[in-house]
Every structure is written in structure tokens, then in C-alpha cells.
């Protein structure tokens, strides 16, 4: 399902609109100029959704890095752990949270 609100929020910053429901037919364009067509928005969906997924994965990774690998990094810097242990923890986070294939 295409998320028109996500497309509009992402690609039409500063434009004013409302969306009644989830369907394009509920779009009310309030800004000057013509509203993007459904075909235009549909064409943008793959890239917008991909970037949304990447942002979600990166946020999850940041949280997990803090919990699982950052401490090991500082231990390695102090000489109480190894670089390999830190790198393994980083890789485990990446493996658990892979990026989706590009559209």
C-alpha cells in the first residue's frame, strides 16, 4: 500500500495539504499551484519507502550500537579488550539489522 502522507511529508516540505483517509482521492491541496498527480506520487513511492526503511534501520542500529558495541570500543581504547571484539559486536548489529535491497 502506498503511503501518500509519507510521500507528501517527505517530498513536499513547506506545502500545505490534507489527506482524508489513506487514498489519493482524499488529497486536498491547499498550497498554490497544482497538486501532484497520483501517477507522480506513485512514481515516488519506491524511493521514499526505501529511504524510510533505511532511516528506521539506522535508528535501530544506533540504539543497538550504544547497548552492545560502544562499551567494547572504549574498552579496546583503554586496552582492556580487543579491536576484534568491538568489530564483532558492530558486525552482529549490522547482521541483525540489514539494509533492504535498493529499489
Question: Into how many domains do the coordinates divide?
Answer: 1
Strand portion, in percent?
Answer: 5-15%
Given helix and strand content, the structural type is mainly alpha
Give the count of helical stretches: 4
- Helix fraction by DSSP (H/I, runs of at least 4): 55-70%
Strand order of the biggest β-sheet: 1-2
Q: Main β-sheet: number of strands, strand sense, barrel status?
A: 2 strands, antiparallel
Structure commentary:
- This protein has 103 residues and is mainly α.
- It has one domain (4-96).
- The chain contains four helices and two strands; from the N terminus they run αββααα.
- It has helices spanning 4-11, 38-68, 70-78, 83-96, and strands spanning 17-19, 27-29.
- The longest helix has 31 residues, at 38-68.
- It is elongated and about 60 Å long.
- The two termini are 16 Å apart.
Summarize the structure.
The chain is 60% helix and 6% strand. With 103 residues, the chain is mostly helical. The chain starts with a helix and ends in a 7-residue tail after the last helix.
Labels describing this entry:
103 residues; two-stranded antiparallel ribbon; mainly alpha
Give a topology summary:
Elements: H1 4-11, E1 17-19, E2 27-29, H2 38-68, H3 70-78, H4 83-96
Antiparallel strand pairs: 1-2
Amino acid at each position: 500500500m502506498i503511503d501518500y502522507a509519507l510521500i507528501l511529508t517527505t517530498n513536499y516540505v513547506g506545502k500545505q495539504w490534507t489527506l482524508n483517509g489513506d487514498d489519493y482521492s482524499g488529497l486536498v491541496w491547499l498550497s498554490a499551484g497544482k497538486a501532484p498527480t497520483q501517477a507522480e506520487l506513485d512514481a515516488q513511492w519506491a524511493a521514499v519507502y526505501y529511504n524510510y526503511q533505511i532511516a528506521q534501520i539506522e535508528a535501530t542500529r544506533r540504539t543497538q550500537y550504544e547497548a552492545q558495541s560502544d562499551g567494547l570500543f572504549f574498552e579496546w581504547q583503554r586496552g582492556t579488550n580487543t579491536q576484534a571484539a568491538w568489530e564483532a559486536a558492530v558486525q552482529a548489529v549490522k547482521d541483525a539489522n540489514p539494509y533492504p535491497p535498493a529499489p
